[in-house]
Amino acid sequence: MASNLDLPTIYLLGAVSEDERSQLAGQVSSLTKDANKADFFVGKVAKTERAKFELRRLGVITIDERQPHESRPRAAHSSGPEAKRQKRDGPVPEAIVISSSSEDESTPTTIPQGLPIKVVKLAWLTESLARGEVLPLDGYVVYEGRKVRAEPTRKRPAPGTSPQETAASRVEGILRRAQNDLADPARAPSSSQHQRQTYSSPTQGSHRRTYGTAAQPPALVRTTTSENDYGLNRVASPIPDYLHTIYSCQRPTPIHPPNEKFVDQLKKIRTARQLTGDKIGIRAYSTAIATISAYPYEIHSPSRISQLPGCGPKIEDLYREFQSLDGHVREADDDETSSKLASLRIFFNIMGVAEATARSFYNRGWRDLDDVIEFGWKDLTRVQQIGVKYYEELQELIARPQVEAIADKVLAHANAIQPGYQMIIAGGYRRGKELSGDVDIIISHHDESATNMLIGRLVLSLEQDQLITHTLILSTANSDRGQEAVSWKGNAPRHGLTSGKSGGSGFDTLDKAMVVWQDPMETGKKVEDATDSSNNDGKPPTHNTNPHRRVDIIISPWRTVGCAVLGWTGGTTFQRDLRRYCKYQRGLRFDSSGARSTDDGTWVDLENYEQDPAPDMLTAERRVFDALQLEYRPPTERCTG
Known about the structure:
The structure is a single chain. With 641 residues, this protein is an alpha+beta fold. The protein has 4 domains: 10-78 and 87-147, Rossmann fold; 212-336, DNA polymerase beta, N-terminal domain-like (DNA polymerase, domain 1, Orthogonal Bundle), CATH 1.10.150; 338-395, DNA polymerase, domain 1, CATH 1.10.150; 398-520 and 543-637, 2-Layer Sandwich (Beta Polymerase, domain 2). The chain is 37% helix and 13% strand. It has 24 helices and 19 strands. The strands form 6 sheets. It has a 5-stranded mixed beta sheet. The chain has a 5-stranded mixed beta sheet with strand order 11-13-16-15-14, with helices on both faces. Strands 17-18-19 form a 3-stranded antiparallel beta sheet. Helix 7 runs antiparallel to helix 8 (279-294) and helix 7 (260-276) crosses helix 11 (330-337). It is globular. The two termini are 45 Å apart.
C-alpha cells in the first residue's frame, strides 16, 4: 500500500536489491527511474567518495555543496570574481553556453544550473516509512551537491538555406579561422597548455593520476577510416542476452576470449591500480575485463565497447588507443616501465605480502629483495620469511602433469588414513590453465566423521613422508563449529592449530592447510655441493634440487562439498559476483562452507543432502547451480580474470 508521506522525487541506487525495490515501489509513489529527475538518491552508501562515484556512473555531474565556495571548480559559464562570491543559498544564475563553432554558427542557450540533490542512506527512507513520518536528514545525508549541466545548441539555418549551402559556409569558416591562427601564432594554444596528461578511471570524470610531461604535446588518438567504414559496410555482431546481466556468474567466460589481447592490457592497468590502492579502480576495471572477456565476438569498433555493461567512455577511449597504437595502451606501457610499480610487484609477489604491505615496504625506502633482507628481515612474519627464502622457486609456474602428480599423492595419503575419500583439483587448473601458480586440492568423504579434524592428520602424514617442508597455516575452523556453514552474522570462531587466532568469517572458512611442497629426489640422484663437502667426510652430499611449490589442501564435509567446489573454482570476479547474486537475488549469504538465509541465519540445503546425498562432488556442484537458479557453467567458462 502506497504511503501518504510527502517525499521528494527519489532514485534508488544500484546496491538496493530487487526485492527491496519491489517493496519500496509499492510504498513510495515518488520513485523515478530517470536519474535526471531525482532530488534524492537513496542507497546503501556510507562514504562521500562512493556517493560521487554512483552519481558519475549515472551521468549526474555535480558541484560539492559542502565544499567552500571559493574552492569549487568553476562552471564553464562562470568568470571573474563575481562568480566566486555567489552565496550558496542565493539565486542561481542561468548559464550562457557558447558553441565551439564561430559566432555566426550558433546562438547562446540558457540552461538552468545548480539544482540541489542529496545522496541519502537507505535507512532514512525505510525508517521514515516504518514510523509514518518523514524523518530529519541529520545523520543520513552522505553527500550534498548541485547539478551542473551545459548543453550547446546550434543555430538553425535560415529558412530557404539548403543543407549544401550551410555545410559549405561552415567549411569556409573553419578554413578562415585556421588561416588566421597560422598568420598569428599568438592565437594558437601554447605548448604549456599540454604539459600534463591525465589518466582517469573507467568511470566518467574520475581522475586518477596526473603525470608531468615534456613541452611536446601528447599525440592525438587517431580515428581511422576503417573504423568508420566498419559501421557502413559491416553489420556489428549482436550483444548476447546474457551480457545484459550485471552478474558475471550468469555469463560464459572462456579462458581465451576473442579480445584477449585488449583484455591483457586492461589487466596490466588493473594490477597497477591494485598496487597503488585504488579500490574503486580495481572494481571498475575488473567489471570491464569480465564483460569484454564474455563478449563472444571480436570487437572492431570502439563504439561497441561503450554498449557493453560496465564499460564506459574511458574503456572505449582505451580501445581506440589500442587500435591506433597497434595493440598497445600508453597507460599499460607506462605502468610496465615504472620503477615504483616494478618494486611494488616484487614485494607483492612475496608469499604472505598483500598490496598494503608492499606499499609499506616501498615507503620505508626498500626497492628490492636485498633491501628487505638487509633492513627488515627481523620484522617479517614467518610466512614472509619463507616467501623471501624461496622467492624464485615459488614464482615458477606448475605444469598440469605436475599439478596432477601432487594431487594424487595427497589423495593417496588421505585414503591411507581411511578409504573412500574423493578429490577435485580446483583453481586455475580446473578452469583450463596450462600453467598454475599453486595447487588447490579439495578432499571430501561421504562419512562426515571422516572429514572432522582430518586436516591435521593428513598434513602430519605428508610431513613424515618429507613432501611438505613448511606448514604455513593450518586451520580447523570448520571442525571447531561442528562442520556447519559459517554463521550468517560472521561471528563463527576461526581457530587454527598453528595460528591460534579467532575471529569472524573470511573468504574461506573450511578446514585447510597452506603448505610449501617439495617432491623428493629420485632414488640415487645426487647433486654435488662443494661448499658442504667438508661436512660429509669429503663425500658429495645429497641435496634436493626440486623446486618448492605452494599447495592449498581444503577439507569439506559432504553436505556442502558442492559449495566448496564452486567456491574454489571460479575466477575472482566470478566469485565476487556469485556472492552478490546470492545476497541480492536469492537472499543468501554464500561462501565455500555453504549458504545461510539472510533473514534468520538458518542453513539452506542447496545440495539436497538431507533427502538424497549427491553421489559425487561434481553432481553436488551442479545441484548448487540448480538451487541458485543459475545456468550451469563448466569451469572453463568461469574465467573472468
